[in-house]
Amino acid sequence: MLHESQERPAAYVEERVLYARNKFLTTSKPAVTGGKPITEELAVELRLTTFGTSACPPRGEWVRSPLVMRPPNQPLSYGLVAPRNGARSLLSGLQAHIIKWLLFDSRPLTKDNKPTEPPEGYLRPSEEQQEEALWRACSEVIWRCGGGFNAQNTSDTKVVVALPTDTTYVQHSAQYYQDGVTEKFQLEEGAGALLLLYAAVLSRGWDK
């Protein structure tokens, strides 16, 4: 499902709903309401833009690359788990936004704009801080792709987000080879990197 937003982020979202996920539990995912089901034309365009072909599935690493932070309150708690595969470049870009938020945007405001603790203190986030850093970093990436930070383009800013469903909207054909994600945006264990990539491409637009 595709959700579009034309509202400007207020640093970047004032209200949000986060669904906790536990890989050891088998509870059902929250139902997706609203949005637009993906079409065959859009699925083909996405795969052509991102992987160069829609006639064969992308490498399995993209379906199995999650957006997961390292254990909290540790020396490397600021880091994403980034396997050595093709999705690592995307995760590295997202990692930069996470570090930027932890070091600068998350700091309490002071009169002289100086940090109240050493930098390494901000790089040992708690689980709650990790969660916020991750969704803020994803929001910034998608909004930048959609032109949300362009002062000359404030009225018609639009971003698109890929949401998970259990329904297949595009059937297998000679023009399109199903990969288990694109045709239904189903968030299987570890498809977060691919969904972020699709959101960035959709928000940026084909002609850019």
TrEMBL record:
InterPro entries: MINDY-3/4_CD (IPR025257), MINY3/4 (IPR039785). GO terms for molecular function: cysteine-type deubiquitinase activity; K48-linked deubiquitinase activity. GO terms for biological process: protein K48-linked deubiquitination; proteolysis. Its EC number is 3.4.19.12. Residues 47-207 form the Deubiquitinating enzyme MINDY-3/4 conserved domain. SMART domains: DUF4205. Keywords: Hydrolase, Protease, Thiol protease, Ubl conjugation pathway. It catalyses: Thiol-dependent hydrolysis of ester, thioester, amide, peptide and isopeptide bonds formed by the C-terminal Gly of ubiquitin (a 76-residue protein attached to proteins as an intracellular targeting signal). The keyword Hydrolase applies. Pfam families: MINDY-3_4_CD. It is an enzyme of class 3 (hydrolase). The keyword Transcription regulation does not apply. Hydrolase that can remove 'Lys-48'-linked conjugated ubiquitin from proteins. Belongs to the MINDY deubiquitinase family. FAM188 subfamily. This is Ubiquitin carboxyl-terminal hydrolase MINDY. It comes from Parnassius apollo (Apollo butterfly).
